[in-house]
Amino acid sequence: MRKHFIYTLWGIFATFVVSAMLAFFAIWNGWIGYMPDIEDLQNPISRFATQVYSSDGKVLGTWNLNKENRIVIPYKKMSPYLIKALVATEDERFYEHSGIDFRALGRAIVKRGLLGQTNAGGGSTITQQLAKQLYSEKASSTLERLLQKPIEWVIAIKLERYYTKQEILALYLNYFDFLHNAVGIKTAANTYFNKEPKDLTLTEAATLIGLCKNPSLFNPVRYPERARDRRNVVLSQMVKAGYLDHAEYSQYSAEPLTLNFHRTDHKDGSATYLREYLRKYLMATRPEKKDYASWNYAQFVTDSILWNTDPLYGWCNKNFKKDGSPYNVYSDGLKVFTTVDSRMQRYAEEAVYQHVARYLQPAFSKEISSKPSSPYSDKLTPKQIKAILNRSVTQCERYRQMKEAGCSAEEIHDTFRKKIPMTVFTYHGDIDTLMSPLDSIRYYKTFLRSGFMSMDPKTGAVKAYVGGLDYTHFMYDMVSLGRRQVGSTIKPFLYSLAMENGFSPCDLAPNRQQTYMVAGRPWTPRNANHSRYGQMVPLSWGLAQSNNWISAYLMSKLNPSQFVQLLHDYGINNPDIHASLSLCLGPCEVSVSEMVSAYTAFANHGIRTAPMFVSRIEDNEGNTIATFQPRMNEVISADNAMKMLTMMMGVVDNGTAGRLRYRYKLEGQIGAKTGTTNNNSDGWFIAFTPQLVSGCWVGGEDRDIHFDSMSMGQGATMALPIWAIFMKKVYADVSLGYSPEVKFDIPADYNPCYHVGSGGEQDSFEQVNAIDEVFE
């Protein structure tokens, strides 16, 4: 009987062993449960954040999917403390097993499973934990979790076959989510300690490894004392494993928990507006007219031009990976190397903030503080202001959500007028207040907006890009997306058309007010300056003084349609520019990036260079998969470009941009143009040196938000100082290589004021012609 009983036990045991072997064989081959294929095992982490670099090698920020801000780094770039702390705490015999630690597993089964000792430790190895993180869904019950375990064991064994121990440790630390958008050890080290993983101290490494047990429970930001205790547990485990002695433990465990916490967010970092612009630019799809509203047809035209002419636009959907799928900036771990210089970017951001936030905004806030119409002009009626605000309401996210939820017009109306607690932006920090959504819309309109861009005229490399003053609260990009009337900054294009039609800077025009017929109606342009009224003045003087009468007279002698075509040649893509005499005063809407790019023609021998934002793109293995070259087109001849140079340098030396010399003490050769639109709605300044072309716009969110006085509202006051502050900082940084000593490529004996006669002879400098004589 006893013998029969023993045979029965052995039979049961054998059946169990055979069943287990069959089960593991089935799991191994994927017949039971989920088993990743070889390719998946060889590439277990499928989502990597794309890193955006400056031209001088600084990480500007990342693009990621679902906050998986993971940047993979190799084992050799991790602190040895991290490795030792991880092994000592999570898997002391890591280097001795092949994926499963049977001794630890047996201990866990007996002590935790049979004896109920919760402090007996777990049986999962680092490799098993990695398998769980990579391939196991969150279990909904204990039974489901028990069924997942055998699958994880098999995957762990397979991982050990494909990877070295160092690679497994690197995979584990690169994959783990350390909370606060810190996915992976590189982002975690930066988030909690503002360091690279290789630079972590012993206590810092122990703090991060302590999170591996339960990141929410031991969150060092919310529970610093609990996190410190857990860190010391990790240190004690390192003593047990022989990595530390007791004296070292006593020393390090007594240290306070010190963080340098900075939450990782795509809104943080440098060049935020540019990074967001590039993200959409790279991921753009082929434009389809049906996807654009009828009122947005101009954008469809612009996007179509970009799709066909710019390799960077929609690059991800024009290029494909080895598997045939398009690239994705959120998950493919690309490295995008921009042309932006991190130092120049910082100077540009500082210049915009210094002038707009610290000087213009206080003056503007003071001016509108006593206005019932604030922040709008007194010229608007209450009805007009209400209409503008209602339009803003219908464009905001709260309105769209309520509309989609089926709320009635009355419910939406009441919601937007009911005061609620909210946090609002100020330049002194966010504040908590009680305000209705409608009042908050009006409040945010009190802030002036700005856009600034700087680029190399020869290569097109964009060196600095500031789309606004605070991306978190003012996300609309005023460099590339925003278009505003350009005012007098359009005049150099008009004068260049005149040069192309045989004029010279010294040709004379009547400086007096005249009336012209525009679209069948009389049009009489006004001029702010009556200097030399009634005289015949050179065109160079007219441009330097930004004289509207000279521009209108000149336009009357040229072909408006030819002018529109020239504007397009300059890279101004707005299809809504209409040919008319009044176009000479800049009523058309253009972006800052288009204007800066257009002015490169004056500094580059008549050749306009398109903005180049990215120099190259690498894949997640460091292979260069795309390079980008300057895109250029000739707009005007080299000789006429030199004529324009002499005139635009006159704007600085003897004209409306003179304060660059007498107030800001900027030296060297500078060509420039100021611009101010009706009612001071827009302040512009575009200027260039032989090495840089930069431009700036300042104004309100709506055109009816502006300074009342010309002294504060003109481009020379609103925008010029930003350029001046930026250039002074650039010149002061000798490491950048920019100098006011560099000169334009103009021959020493060049004479801009000549006409070529029918016999080929040149008129002397003194022989100038009235414009009317040219057309006789």
Automatic annotation (TrEMBL):
Domain Penicillin-binding protein transpeptidase: 452-691
Protein's UniProt name: Transglycosylase domain-containing protein
Pathway noted in the entry: Cell wall biogenesis; peptidoglycan biosynthesis
Pfam families reported in the protein's UniProt record: Transgly, Transpeptidase
Localisation per UniProt entry: Cell membrane
Family to which this protein belongs: In the C-terminal section; belongs to the transpeptidase family.
Primary localization: membrane
Bilayer-crossing regions: 7-28
Record bears the keyword Cell inner membrane: no
Keyword Transmembrane helix appears in the UniProt entry: yes
Gene3D superfamilies: Biosynthetic peptidoglycan transglycosylase-like, DD-peptidase/beta-lactamase superfamily
SUPFAM superfamilies found in the cross-reference section: beta-lactamase/transpeptidase-like, Lysozyme-like
Superkingdom of source: Bacteria
Keywords from the named record: Carboxypeptidase, Cell membrane, Cell shape, Cell wall biogenesis/degradation, Glycosyltransferase, Hydrolase, Membrane, Multifunctional enzyme, Peptidoglycan synthesis, Protease, Transferase, Transmembrane, Transmembrane helix
Native source organism of the sequence: Segatella sinensis
Catalytically driven reaction(s): Preferential cleavage: (Ac)2-L-Lys-D-Ala-|-D-Ala. Also transpeptidation of peptidyl-alanyl moieties that are N-acyl substituents of D-alanine; [GlcNAc-(1->4)-Mur2Ac(oyl-L-Ala-gamma-D-Glu-L-Lys-D-Ala-D-Ala)](n)-di-trans,octa-cis-undecaprenyl diphosphate + beta-D-GlcNAc-(1->4)-Mur2Ac(oyl-L-Ala-gamma-D-Glu-L-Lys-D-Ala-D-Ala)-di-trans,octa-cis-undecaprenyl diphosphate = [GlcNAc-(1->4)-Mur2Ac(oyl-L-Ala-gamma-D-Glu-L-Lys-D-Ala-D-Ala)](n+1)-di-trans,octa-cis-undecaprenyl diphosphate + di-trans,octa-cis-undecaprenyl diphosphate + H(+)
Boundaries of every Glycosyl transferase family domain copy: 57-238
